[in-house]
Write a structure and sequence with these properties.
The structure holds two protein chains of two kinds. By secondary structure, chain A is α/β, with parallel strands linked by helices. In chain A, about 45% of the residues lie in helices and about 15% in strands. The two termini of chain A are about 20 Å apart. In chain B, about 50% of the residues lie in helices and about 15% in strands. Chain B is built from 24 helices and 13 strands. Chains A and B meet through helix 4, helix 6 and helix 7 of A and helix 21 of B.
């Protein structure tokens, strides 16, 4: 498994980095000594030993240029498009007989380049076309992503390798010993609604701000719990931040926290009234799954893969319509019975997915790939 | 002094002289080629044999000329006389492009038509006006008159140069005379390629050559083609106005010609709406080619050793329009071991167009060969795995389709590219795709398929794309119109 992304990541693992790390841990347990890690060196893949300081030591000792054998599987699920090595996958497959398995998270840069930084549409189209030729199998994190990928590959006349949808783990760990900040303690002391997500334009914090403005305009300030945004600050949200900061109507109603640890995150989920997820488009929507895994009611946007996460256990509102969000938030805030009833339904019906489940799903498809090619 | 008494002169029996001299030429040729002295009975046999091999007397005369200078000298008058006898008809071909070094489809077509006429023994002269300053000067052609002069005919001559040239050389006495002076023969037939010089032809016939027949040689439905091109560059009103001018000129040619020639069944049906006179269907074709080690090596250098699909196209705007229509929005048809080689001026136009960079993976797949000589083209055709014809506009029939069919390679083409070649659709190796998604998928299938192997029957059926077969109707048209 290629773990270049994780090895090069300096911050706490989030998103794709977390996926790569979690899967490498679980697949290591499943495959034992048949599971090895590799990273991209300057011009080739080299074996990676987390315990070793000099990563090229194995190859230096054995003078091995190529670490692959003909029946190996190379699994790569990281931020591959940010590196040159994905261009080598085709040749690794062709020259060494390696089976290549890659991962598609979403096609947002292709479908919605306006939500991304820079001119990324062409870059990502190039990437997907290239890995389609290189891959024996492409993993997808949702059926929606699978459909988007197949649509692109068909439209461009690309190779259509087999694809497989696997679930992402949505269990939020409860970690003892982490420090809970005063700010978090203050938030959990009162009622609040939680939105966990990177704070960027696509995530649509703006519609929540507008919903709150609408409700405050109607004089319903006193009914409204605090709205808490948890996430790293991204791009395209400066104007929304300015509005939140300066709008006297909603003053104090919206709180933004950029950095919380796992314990704080778990505490915030547990203590929230309910969670919201108004994103304009998603490849999966992990925070929706996390909220449901903890038995919380969720109001979500129906865009992209989001309906696959919670199905009919979640209520939906149009991400382009702040009035709908205002209505849904007010309803769930003021109808305690309905809220408890939803939570009860979620707790009994929602099947929590663990990273072990994810790894098992991938292992199953990889094993069938091995059988097919034997 | 008394004059010696001579025999009274007998009337000259020209026909017997012709027969006698013709026999002498044949006997001499027989001796040179076989080394034996023929007798009278050999004459008929040898004459029939030569004709069955499609050797003309002209060929024999050339052979004699190269082998025996004394015979050539002695027979000069005989040869000249026989040439005049043998030359069936005189044909004047009017064109707005030179044909001695043909590169684009129109030039290739006219060049092959002229060769076809000459091979049948007709005397042919090609005259005209160079339709662009980019054409090289050629004997019989008046130089391109220049945009300033053309703007006296039409306000904005951009993309209307041919039309303006036609009007200028018909109506302006100086230009008319300049072109008329180029004509060295007394034509039985004036064949006008495209409708542009038809008015000149009509005026010339009226003034100098009353008995000539005028053939309108149509290459496509001009006004529709022009409308498609103009709509890319001009506003709707301008493009409609100009294409109506083209239509008028085109219909004038059809209505007033003594016979028409066209390139496809579709065009024939359209022309038939306007005239009941004879129409000959003479599709575009291709000449056979042979590649050798050198030409294949040159081709290999261009393709860099990759398996490739080949696109041969001039810089005619519809060629680029079709290319980008089919390959825009991402190009995933080829794996990293495959390339798309473009031959002809279309290559540089495509490479310089920003759209090639806007479509993912397209720029890195394109290899521009540019213009190549015939030998290298033969090598590129024979080394290719597949030939593409992403033609989405334009009328007439595509010479490159004939070339693709004769190549024996996989073909991925639109229905428009196969206009005039419909009977080949469904044949082994012919893949028709009319949408970008289908075209790209079909290309992926073709480029990854095994090399195409045609059966002998399939090869034979494609012989109809060769020029000599395609143009066989022209001789019939001449005989039926003049006889």
């Amino acid at each position: 498994m290629n773990v270049t992304t994780s090895v090069n990541w300096q911050r706490p693992p989030v998103g794709i980095v977390r996926v790569e790390q979690s899967l490498s841990n679980e697949l290591g347990l499943i495959y034992g000594k048949n599971f090895k890690l590799c990273i991209w060196g300057e011009d080739r893949f080299i074996e990676y030993d987390p315990e070793s300081i000099i990563q090229d030591s194995i190859n230096a000792r054995t003078n091995k240029i190529n670490i692959f054998n003909a029946e190996d599987i190379l699994l790569s699920v990281g931020l591959d498009w940010d590196h040159d090595y994905f261009r080598k996958f085709y040749h690794i497959r062709k020259e060494f007989g390696v089976r290549v398995v890659t991962c598609c998270y979403d096609l947002i840069p292709v479908l919605y380049p306006q939500y991304c930084v820079g001119n990324v549409a062409s870059l990502f189209e190039n990437y997907f076309i290239e890995i389609a030729d290189a891959s024996n199998l492409i993993l997808c994190i949702s059926k929606n992503t699978q459909n988007d990928l197949l649509t692109l590959l068909n439209k461009t006349g690309s190779a259509i390798p087999p694809t497989h949808v696997f679930p992402l783990g949505d269990n939020v760990p409860k970690i003892e010993g982490d420090v809970i900040s005063e700010e978090v303690k203050k938030i959990v002391a009162d009622k609040f609604i939680l939105y966990v997500s990177t704070i960027e334009r696509r995530k649509n914090h703006d519609v929540l701000y507008k919903a709150y403005h609408i409700l405050c305009e109607k004089g319903l300030n006193d009914l409204l719990p605090q709205l808490v945004f948890i996430g790293m600050k991204g791009w395209g949200v400066e104007e929304t931040f300015k509005d939140i900061e300066l709008d006297p109507l909603i003053a104090g109603s919206i709180v933004i926290l950029n950095n919380v640890n796992d314990s704080e995150l778990r505490l915030l989920y547990d203590a929230s009234l309910f969670c919201v997820y108004p994103s304009l488009y998603e490849g999966w929507g992990l925070p929706v799954g996390e909220a449901l895994a903890l038995g919380k009611a969720v109001i979500s946007s129906p865009k992209g893969s989001l309906p696959e996460v919670g199905g009919n256990l979640v209520s939906y509102a149009d991400p382009w319509n702040p009035h709908e969000w205002a209505d849904e938030i007010l309803y769930l805030t003021t109808n305690e019975c309905k809220r408890y009833s939803r939570q009860k339904s979620i707790k009994s019906k929602y099947k929590v997915k663990t990273w072990s489940n994810s790894a098992q799903s991938i292992a199953k498809i990889i094993n069938s790939l091995l059988l097919k090619l034997d | 002094m008394q004059l010696s008494h001579t025999e009274p002169m007998q009337p000259i029996n020209l026909e017997s002289i012709r027969q006698k001299h013709r026999k002498r030429i044949f006997f001499h040729a027989f001796k040179i080629t076989t080394g034996m002295n023929p007798c009278d009975s050999d004459y008929e046999h040898y004459r029939t044999y030569l004709e069955s091999k499609n050797f003309t007397l002209k060929y024999l005369l050339e052979k004699i000329g190269s082998d025996n200078a004394i015979v050539q000298k002695n027979n000069h008058n005989v040869i000249q006389h026989l040439q005049e006898i043998k030359s069936k008809h005189s044909i004047l071909v009017l064109s707005t492009y030179p044909i001695e070094n043909p590169t684009h489809g129109g030039q290739l077509r006219v060049s092959n038509i002229v060769q076809s006429y000459r091979s049948k023994g007709h005397k042919v002269q090609v005259v005209g006006v160079l339709g662009s300053e980019n054409y090289q000067a050629e004997h019989g052609f008046v130089n391109y008159p220049g945009a300033n002069e053309l703007s006296n005919v039409i306000n904005n001559p951009f993309l209307m140069e041919d039309y303006a040239i036609g009007k200028l050389f018909a109506k302006n006495n100086n230009y008319y005379t300049e072109l008329a002076k180029k004509i060295e023969i007394k034509p039985d037939i004036i064949e006008v390629e495209h409708p542009w010089l038809f008015e000149f032809a009509a005026r010339y016939r009226k003034e100098y050559s009353n008995n000539s027949k005028i053939f309108y040689s149509s290459h496509n439905i001009e006004y529709k083609l022009k409308q498609q091109i103009l709509s890319i560059y001009l506003d709707k009103i301008s493009s409609e106005t100009n294409s109506n001018l083209i239509r008028d000129v085109e219909l004038h040619a059809i209505l007033n010609a003594d016979a028409c020639i066209c390139v496809s069944e579709n065009d024939l049906q359209w022309i038939r709406n306007y005239t009941q006179k004879r129409i000959a269907l003479a599709p575009n074709g291709v000449n056979d080619w042979q590649s050798d080690y050198v030409s294949r090596e040159n081709a290999q250098k261009i393709s860099l050793g990759f398996r490739y699909a080949l696109y041969c196209a001039s810089a005619h705007p519809p060629n680029m329009a079709g290319f980008f229509e089919m390959f825009g929005n991402g190009f995933g048809s080829m794996n990293p071991d495959q390339k798309l080689v473009i031959v002809g001026d279309a290559g540089w136009s495509i490479a310089g167009d920003q759209r090639v960079h806007q479509s993912a993976k397209l720029a890195e797949k394109v290899v521009v060969a540019g213009r190549v000589d015939q030998s290298t083209l033969a090598g590129l055709l024979d080394n290719s795995h597949c030939i593409i014809l992403p033609i989405t506009q334009g009328g007439g029939t595509n010479l490159k389709t004939a070339e693709a069919l004769w190549s024996g390679k996989h073909i991925v083409a639109t229905s428009i590219a196969f206009r005039g070649f419909e009977k080949y659709i469904g044949q082994n190796g012919v893949n028709i795709a009319n949408t970008p998604e289908d075209f790209k998928k079909a290309l992926r299938v073709a480029i990854n398929a095994d090399p195409l192997k045609l059966t002998n029957d399939e090869i034979e059926s494609r012989r109809n794309v060769l020029w000599d077969v395609c143009l066989s109707s022209l001789q019939i048209l001449i005989e039926s119109t003049l006889d």
